[in-house]
Design brief:
Blueprint lengths: L5 H13 L3 E5 L10 H9 L3 E3 L10 H6 L9 H13 L6 E5 L1 H11 L5 E5 L12 H11 L8 E2 L3 H7 L6 H11 L3 E2 L1 H7 L21 E6 L7 H11 L6 E6 L11 H15 L3
Parallel strand pairs: 1-2, 1-3, 3-4, 4-7, 7-8
Antiparallel strand pairs: 5-6
Helix pairs in contact: 2-11, 4-5, 6-7
Length: about 280
């Protein structure tokens, strides 16, 4: 089990003191917990206790991450899921969980472990049983997957790669601003795990979609998302919809940057409405 940081422990303590329902935000690859700052403020104003844990060894700032990328390497999907479970285990109330990209996948994994009152998976990375493999998804992950040695590295994106994977639905100026403000190197191994999940019965990239205590799930997929195209989000929904609990999907006119770009509030409010229906503050 991973050890939570002092900052994460402080967030847990603060959430418990409020007596409010916690909401745990889970970021994906090439981003840090700070990518959720706007969302955390919105959910706090709605009466929730937001927490923004990092992946194990996440630096605090984009500058630190870009200066010392090696600390972010070698983090498997299982490592990160266990880390977030450690954080959640310290909470007095079962949280809602909101995740984006690989964070969306992690939100589904954690929900399948019975750790969520409700979960929102925004453009969730594919898991075992999700079969579509669109060309744009392959191109978005190619900066990592093209070199097997990247499995044990943390790999940055060039601006051009970030623009294709995250900012293709944005104007050039906004895409450049988001790249400077948010982009950091990402552990390569989760992408290799996801790429081989359907070939590996023992993969960590699997979701217990049929868990009786999974709780309600909302999946949000972007019409213009290159990294997690709509077909992938929809296939994840079809797997999750086998559960007897509420399972919904919403298709939005957005790209992969939907949590951090100028339209973030629309997606955050959509997510908040779902959480409010199923996990009262």
């Amino acid at each position: 089990m991973a050890t939570i940081t002092e900052h994460e422990a402080a967030q847990v303590e603060a959430a418990n003191k409020t007596g409010k329902t916690p909401v745990v935000f889970v970021h994906g690859l090439w981003l840090l917990p700070s990518s959720w700052d706007n969302w955390a403020e919105l959910f706090a104003a709605a009466g929730y206790a937001p927490l923004t844990p990092g992946w194990p060894d996440d630096p605090e700032t984009v500058e630190e991450a870009n200066a010392n990328p090696d600390v972010m390497a070698k983090k498997t999907v299982g490592d990160v899921a266990d880390h977030f479970e450690d954080v959640i285990s310290g909470l007095d109330k079962k949280p809602a969980i909101v995740g984006h990209s690989f964070g969306g996948l992690l939100s589904l994994i954690l929900a399948g472990r019975g750790l969520a009152q409700a979960s929102v998976a925004l453009s969730p990375a594919p898991f075992r049983g999700v079969l579509p493999l669109p060309i744009s998804a392959l191109k978005s992950s190619s900066p990592v997957l093209k070199n097997p040695a990247n499995r044990n590295r943390a790999v940055p994106l060039t601006y051009e790669q970030f623009h294709y994977a995250f900012g293709n639905a944005l104007e050039e100026d906004e895409a450049k601003q988001l790249y400077t403000q948010y982009a950091v190197p990402a552990a390569g191994i989760p992408l290799f795990q996801a790429a081989t999940a359907n070939l590996n019965p023992w993969t960590e990239v699997k979701v217990n979609s049929r868990a009786e205590n999974r709780g309600p799930v909302l999946i949000v997929g972007g019409e213009h998302d290159h990294t997690v195209p709509w077909a992938v989000s929809n296939a994840a929904y079809k797997k999750e919809a086998r559960n007897e609990a509420v399972t919904e999907i919403v298709r939005v006119d957005r790209g992969h940057s939907l949590t951090i770009d100028a339209g973030w509030r629309e997606i955050a409010e959509l997510s908040l409405r779902f959480v409010t229906r199923h996990a009262k503050p």
